[in-house]
Structures are given as structure tokens and as C-alpha cells.
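Worked Example 4.2. Consider the chain below.
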Amino acid sequence: MQNTENSPAILMQFAKWPQPGRVKTRLIPALGIDGALQAHITLSLEVLDNLCATGYDVSFWWDRPLEQPPEYASSLLANIEGAGLQQYFQQGDDLGERMFRALTQGIDAYSRAVVIGSDCPSVDPGYVRSAVVALDHADVVLGPSNDGGYVLIGARKLTAEALAGIEWGTPMVLEQTLERMEKTGLSVYVLEPRWDVDEPEDWQRFRRMVGER
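Applying the procedure from the previous section yields the following C-alpha cells:
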């Protein structure tokens, strides 16, 4: 990873490969397996557009290596490759380790790095820019989600312990992360809350947002 355009930060989009039954599973009862798959692709493209619109460097991080990309990834890959983005694979036993490794790699190359999930369409370009600016004064920046987690994490300094032992996927994620950060002596700036898409009502909220443009 190289900072080729003097971008003040590297933005890292985390995403699962689009495969039926493996993505947006909580949407399946309302949308069906195919509908949930298409929702995942739509959301991933929306986030990608938002990140590219910031003007910062962007990289795309798949959840695991595959011998061959699934056929359903074609539209995502076309957009990623069309934008000239580098692609990587997440590494680690849990989300905390995956984010730590990616962020550390980004910090080494850019001094500031930000991870954003692919189900967070409310993370608009202005919100991302605010996160990067916050890293002028804080070691870590977090964008809380309304379900107790967070839609964004950025860092200019980080330790593995700061993201270890957290109960991922629970309403305690943000609280536990803030506790770990305090114990490891990292300063944290918390942005205003945003929402992500997990449940059918979240998907409807996204549909309304797109329809209002």
C-alpha cells in the first residue's frame, strides 16, 4: 500500500463477498435470499460511491480469499477496478484483529487510516472528512451506530489490545471499545451517531433515503 497522491488518509471499505445466504441474513425473512444478496450489493456500491467522493485514497477489503470471485461480485468488481482501487483480504480470527491489522497497515503508509463497513450508507463524504480531521487531535475516532456498535473507526495510533476481547455483534461493542481504549491510554473522539442496515426497517430507511434524492 502506497500513498501516491498525498491523501491525508486511507479509507478501507470492509465487505463480504456477495454470495446467496451469506450476506444480510437478517433481511432474508423480508426480502428472500436473492433480495438480501441484492441489498448487500446495492449497499456496498453506495458506500463505495460515498468513500470515493471524499477525494481520499480508498482500498477495498474482502472478508476472505477465494480461488475465484463469485459471479454475483461482477458489478462490485467492475466499480472497484474501474476506480483503480487496490484490493486486499482481511486477516484475523475476529473483527477486532481484522480491523487492527488493516488499520496498522494503513497507518504505516498514510499515518491515518479509517475502516468503514459496507452496510453503512449513512456514512456520507462529509462524515468521513470529519473523522479524518478528528485524527489531527485524537489517536482514534469512532462513529457510533444506533445499535450500540459503530459504523466507522479511524486511527493514527493503535494497539492490538484496544480491539481485543470485545463481544462483536452485541449492543456492548461501542462501550467495550471505549473501555479498552481508555485502558490502553489512547485518546478517542466520538462523532455523532449514524445508522447501518441490519434489519428490514433499516433497509426501508435506506430505500426512503435514496428515493428522496
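The first strand starts at residue 10 and ends at 15. Residues 103 and 113 are 6 Å apart (CA to CA). Compare this with Example 4.1 before moving on.
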